[in-house]
Request: fold
Amino acid sequence: MSNISMDTIDITGEAPLEEPQRQYYYMAAAKKKIGEASKKLGRPLTFCVNTFGCQMNARDSEKLVGVLEEIGYEQADSEQADFVIYNTCTVRENANQRVYGRLGYLHSLKKKNPHMMIALCGCMMQEPHVVEKLKKSYSFVDLIFGTHNIYKFPELIATALDSNRMVIDIWKDTDQIVEDLPSERKYPFKSGVNIMFGCNNFCSYCIVPYVRGRERSRNPRDIIREIEALAADGVAEIMLLGQNVNSYGKTLETPMTFAALLREIEKVEGIQRIRFMTSHPKDLSDELIQVMKESKKICPHLHLPLQSGSSRILEKMNRHYTKERYLQLVDKIRAAVPDISLTTDIIVGFPQETEEDFLETLDVIRRVRYDSAFTFIYSKRTGTPAAVMEDQVPEEVVKERFDRLLKEVQEISRETSSRLTGTVQEVLVEEVNEHDNSLVTGRMGNNLLVHFPGDASMIGKLCRVSLDECKGFYYMGTAIKDEG
Reply:
């Protein structure tokens, strides 16, 4: 989105101090080095970005890919590349173990390819004990940085290319947001758009506020400008991203509500679908519900994390709502948008959870009847208040409850998902079906998948599709040809 030309940048002088000009200076410097290395090897240098975790991480990875392509790397499908970067997640403990396991494999590849570079970034890098472990046991890693300074990737990669030692740049927090750096979208027809960064909620089980920092909202003008550029580039669907989109705008000089931002985004011509996540129940306003009711573009799908149906456990989780308030909110939403698809997150086995607390969760599931739910066994995260709570629930009890929860969720999901059988719905085609190339796969506004006969020419287009048969969590359908 920037008009800065790489070829006009003078890299013989000092790097500018202003952003994003400083990062473009380092991109030009890195591009020169990559060009020289490529010429020496007689082939293009390749890169591979592996993303762990949430959609915020996926969006960050698109920015990393944009920079790597800008400086002359070509994307590879495997980790046998010249530059491998892991964008890490640390929400659950086992995510860290997966990364350590993969690093052992990368080390063996690096021994065979001495000019290979390995970088680690993302939430896991914001934990001091992780960085210490990497310095001690994984000294072959070339570059380590965190979540707050991802915009500095060009400068960091230029430094790493010039260095024979591990480059580490971790910030504890930041209030800085740098616009207009390269980004390479995974899909040409849909894109994530960050509207804010960080989190102020401090749920007692969650590490995110400690690794993503405090909330900071992007300027609405910058958001609209980005969306207008995406629309001009053929994007039909956007996903607005934030740890809690409902608290958007509180840190701006002139505060603006999330609902007001949505009204402005809806005016952008070319954008046909608007999605957003994640929506915290404690901040979901009547104004937002009204905007969703009136909107022609906001998808009829809301991800509304419950976490627990017990008001007692919700208080221990520091969620700032009760079971009763959550159910009232669901009633309000359904009254305004009757055909809305509701999805949720649920944690089983939070410290001190009793059988009665668990039954309260099952009660909410039966009353709300979610289209789908992400269900998690409580994972103790070092550094969070919940990790040191007394009365951790025994593993065998947690597993038994989790199995009961999963059975309940899946039965209800199958029933609620099938309610559209026989109707005609708009489907955004995303890809040729990977199991049967005579079919294409797309998504309805409510986020359910549909498979129907078609070809690659339909990718990125909205099609009217008759939903012939529900197969549990997806539909088989037939495209309706426009008359005339």
Summary: The radius of gyration is 24 Å. The longest helix spans residues 395-417.
